[in-house]
Structure formats: C-alpha cells, structure tokens
C-alpha cells in the first residue's frame, strides 16, 4: 500500500504507534503469541511478541519485558497509556500460541504455545482487559498485522489465507 510503513515487532519486542501510516507486524508466530492493543478513539496501537509464558523462566535480568506474557502485557498496557490511550477504551486481540512440536502433545509442559496463550489471557484478565478476539492454538504459524489508522487486525496463515480479527 502507498503511504503505509510496516514496522516489525521482533521476538520479545513491544512497539507502540500512533502514526496512521504505521502497520505493526509480528511475523512467523508459531508458539509465540502476538498481542495487539488498540484505542479506537485515540487511534493508538501497541503490539507485543510474547515468546514465553512467565518471567520466572528468565535466566538473567536483561530480558526485554515483551518476552514473557506476564511482563509483556503489563509493559504494553503501560506504554499505550503513556502514549495517550485511555485504559477504559483499550481492546485486546491475539494470535499464535500454536503447538509446533509433535512431542508437545504427549507432555503439556512442552506445549509452549498453549502455555503462552493461557498466560496472555490470564495476564489480560489480571489487568481487567477483555480479549475481544483471538486466533490461537492449532499446529500452524501465523503473521499478524495491526493497521494503526483503523485498528484493523489481519492474521495471515500459509495455506489458510487471511482473516480479520
């Protein structure tokens, strides 16, 4: 699209945008969860690329807060509010959380995708934010696009097409 600038949200990253020409993108979500927060009145969006369910799994102190569901949700909420969003208007949508390893079916602890999805849901609930739409689970990867100008959220999947959340 002309005049649109995509900005990748990498593993463990968190990005906030209010520029209507921006599209925040989480590429290749497998077991990771891409969480999009949006304030439709202020037209401010945030996206976080959650890699693991809980910061207690951290080996060091230098991990970005977006890497974990518990710290990522909290950091994304703080960042979008700081950018001018109203907490009462924020909506949340998420995609990813797939079971990418066949071994995960035999051991729930190995199903990082399901654990990530549940941890994101729980963290949102702790902060009083409703997850209004999701495309999580399954055994396939996804790419997530958040169009800041409109709040449109597209999930693309190889072989399954594109879907709006």
Automatic annotation (TrEMBL):
It comes from the Bacteria. The keyword Repressor does not apply. The keyword Hydrolase applies. Belongs to the CheD family. HAMAP family: CheD. Its EC number is 3.5.1.44. GO terms for molecular function: protein-glutamine glutaminase activity. Probably deamidates glutamine residues to glutamate on methyl-accepting chemotaxis receptors (MCPs), playing an important role in chemotaxis. Keywords: Chemotaxis, Hydrolase. Pfam families: CheD (PF03975). It catalyses: L-glutaminyl-[protein] + H2O = L-glutamyl-[protein] + NH4(+). Gene3D superfamilies: 3.30.1330.200. This is Probable chemoreceptor glutamine deamidase CheD.
């Amino acid at each position: 699209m002309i005049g649109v600038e995509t900005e990748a949200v990498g593993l463990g990253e968190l990005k906030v945008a209010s520029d209507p020409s921006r599209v925040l993108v989480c590429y290749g979500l497998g077991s990771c969860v891409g969480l999009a927060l949006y304030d439709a009145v202020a037209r401010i969006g945030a996206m976080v690329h959650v890699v693991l369910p809980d910061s207690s799994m951290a080996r060091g102190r230098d991990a970005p807060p977006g890497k974990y569901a518990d710290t990522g949700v909290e950091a994304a909420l703080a960042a979008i509010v700081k950018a001018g969003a109203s907490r009462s208007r924020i909506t949340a949508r998420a995609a990813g959380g797939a079971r990418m390893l066949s071994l995960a079916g035999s051991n729930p602890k190995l199903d990082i995708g399901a654990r990530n999805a549940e941890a994101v849901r729980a963290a949102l609930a702790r902060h009083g934010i409703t997850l209004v739409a999701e495309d999580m689970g399954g055994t396939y990867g996804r790419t997530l696009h958040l169009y800041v100008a409109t709040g449109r959220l597209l999930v693309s999947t190889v072989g399954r097409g594109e879907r709006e959340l």
